[in-house]
Amino acid sequence: MERRGLTEAQRRQIVCFLFTLPALAVVFVFFLFPMLRSLVLSFTNWDGIGHDFQWVGLKNFATVVTDSSFRQVVVNTLYLIVIYVPVLNVIALLLAVAVYNSGRAGNIYKSMLFFPNLLSMTVIALIWKIIYNNGGILNQFLKAVGLKILARDWLGLPQTVLPAMSFTIIWFAVGYYLLIYLAGLNTVPVELYESAEVEGVTRTQKLFRITIPLIAPSVTINIVLSTIGIITLFDLPFVLTRGGPGYLSETLALHVYFYAFVQLQTTYALALAVLLGMFAILITSIQLRLLRRREEASR
Amino acid sequence: MRRIIVLFLAIFLVLGAGLASAQKVTLTVALMSSDIPEATQAFLDAFVAENPDIQIDFTSLPDDVEGFLQPKAASGELPDYMSINGGSFGAGLVDKGLILDLRGTFADKNTIDAVKPQFTSPMGKLFGIAGGVSTSVIYYQVKAFKDLGITPPDNWEDFLVACEKLKKAGKTPLIITPADGTIANTLWSWGFANNIVAKYPDYAKRFREGTMPLDTPEFADVFAKAKVLYDKGYTQEGAVSTLYMDGNQMYIQGKAVQQFAGSWLAGSLLKTDFETGIYMPPWNAKGKTKVPIVATETGWAVAEGPHKAQATRLLDWMNGKGFHYYQNARGNIPDLKDPMGPIKLDQRMKTYLDKLYSYKLTSGLWFEFIPAATMQLIPKLYQEVLLGQKTPREAAAAFDKAAKDAVKK
Question: What count of other Cβ atoms lies within 10 Å of the Cβ of residue B106?
Fold first, then answer.
């Protein structure tokens, strides 16, 4: 039976739309609606429990931003982005190049490096808490090898807490990003390396002149993903340090949690979550723009 | 034919089981019980055995009861029966009609009056029944004290002398746990009691009204005492990052001579391999009378909902015939007029309680009176003070501002 007034293409579009409706409904109910509701409530004085609230304008945002701890929390997040994103990506890329085409041994290395990703971040944090504790494995090792002077309360000192946390995140994440780089390396034609070898090109030159330009899309993905990973980092600092000492290892996402579930100031948590979302969108947009430009330049 | 009979039997059994379970009410129960998992299971099993029309869907709560309950309250999914702390959060729930006013229940009638104000809302509703009386004490290794000729000190100055002796003997004098909120149960609450409550006995009302003066030298001293202990090396190495559970384990393993902790840990800390004694934390200045802590244990509440009758039955049972299951495991201080079962209270704790109850002026624990918005601040401020990032006076000022802002909001 043919319906009048609808072309074949239009009917197909309607059918396609109907097929996507269930997925759209899930996205709307579980993602868009809560997001929009949170945005609306961040401009109110909702107490987090009842149904009554009044509009308060930008008051919640002003309170959150002028809080004495806010600056420290932003600095921590930026510190982690600046340290973690480049270091992680350099290590992952170098390891990917090293284990690529290494045969069976390469597979063993890949499995070992990816292994931490099979564990939950909470488990990882507990393991590293035992390692970093004052009486933990790291200090015991340092004392055993005569380096007692280096033993310290790694998670309790301002100088060491963020580097210690960064190290743990890199250890955890490197395998995942390595796999993305390996996928990128698979797309590089082998003939290019063979020609380069004939031309007498060194390994370093191959890396910078052939590999990196040709896996630029993987670099872009990894940089954006690792940045988002840090901006939304919650579970590791929660278990490892609870954001301490003071606010020195508290991330923005953890700060949202403390507002919402410890201080029970839901609207402050929502305001900060909105700022966090905007921050993530801004940073990743800038990165994407710069990296895409670089990708195009290297083509 | 045989197959048909078997099929009918199977259908009959499945339907029968379905009908039997349909008659039962499933109570959702969320209790803070990670320290006594076996005992919790035992008392829930015992309750179900006595109440065959009820089955229980149990969840073990994390330490931050409010953090667990708040989103459930917001989404109208509070458990039928739950742990709850005294203070403003529960008061808000009962005044909004989300949990029951327990006045007139058997549990209410069987509980001593002293533990009810902390569980009473500004509208006069009883939102929870305390799980017992609580305080915090200093647990100590008796032998280490005897060997060095130390008697339990009676004031702050003597306490420092005792710590110095212990340190000189190569021992770690005291465990403190500023990495999480539990330091508020010990150093903060005792400091507040002895420095502030004596001057402002109406402290709870002042906190509610936002008129509690905290940007003062007396309140700064609450933080300064911790700094003195830390700077003089009287606390364990890595004190800043020590969590509550780690601190308890360190004491049990004999790694320090004293542990400042809650009476709710008597069940484990008084059963160490070495002899342990307890004494009242001497946070008072020399010549001044102590203001000790007499507070409430985390208690229980009942949600407004279709199962409130059954959940109230569990509440009455927990505060009557079933109380000993819980009390025996924790070794905590009962608050029931008639415990209706064998209570196990260590003789050392009994002696301590006789002394504790002789004080006319006492104080509550922090969570019973400070605004929820300031709870997270306490461990953070201690950590910052210990590391020298804030002076005790700056910490006092920050707390003062946060407490007043919370009331304004």
Answer: 16
Question: ∠B85-B31-B84 over CA atoms, to 5°?
Answer: 15
Question: What class has domain A60-298?
Answer: mainly alpha
Hey, what amino acid is at B398? Answer: A
- Best residue in A49, A154, A160, A266 for a mutation probing chain B (most B CBs within 10 Å): A49
Residues 6+ apart with CB under 8 A from B68: B30, B61, B62
Closest chain A CA to residue B380:
A246
- Continuous H helices in chain A: 8-27, 33-41, 59-66, 68-99, 103-114, 121-132, 137-144, 158-185, 190-198, 203-206, 212-214, 216-231, 235-240, 252-257, 266-298
Walk me through the domains of chain B, giving residue ranges and CATH numbers.
Answer: 26-133+296-339 (3.40.190.10), 136-293+353-408 (3.40.190.10)
Among left, alpha and beta (phi > 0; psi -120 to 50; other), residue B326 is: alpha
Q: What spatial distance separates the first Cα and last Cα of chain A, rounded to whole Å?
A: 51
Residue of B nearest to A250 (CA): B380
Instruction: Please list every residue in chain A whose beta carbon sits closer than 8 Å to the beta carbon of residue B180.
Output: 242
Share of chain A above pLDDT 90, in %: 67
In chain B, residues 21-40 whose CB comes closer than 8 Å to chain A: none
Strand B81-84 and strand B299-302: pairing? antiparallel
Q: What pLDDT, on a 0 to 100 scale, did the predictor assign at position B181?
A: 82
pLDDT tens profile B197-237: 989 999 988 998 999 999 999 999 999 999 999 999 999 99
Domain boundaries along the sequence of chain A:
60-298
| DSSP secondary structure string for all residues of B251-269 | HHTTSSSEEEEEGGGHHHH
* CA closest to A134 among chain B residues: B238
Q: Is the ipTM of this complex over 0.90?
A: no
Q: Please tell me the distance from the alpha carbon of residue B334 to that of residue B319, in angstroms, as a whole number.
A: 10
B238 touches chain A (CB under 8 A): yes
Task: Enumerate the H helices of B51-111 as residue ranges.
Answer: 65-74, 88-95, 106-109
DSSP A211: I
Q: Are B297 and B131 in contact (CB under 8 A)?
A: yes
- CB of A231 closer than 8 Å to CB of A253: yes
CB spacing of A134 vs B242 below 8 angstroms? yes
pLDDT tens digits for range B377-397: 999 999 999 999 999 999 999
- Shortest distance between the Cα of A15 and any Cα of chain B, in A, equals 36
B257 touches chain A (CB under 8 A): no
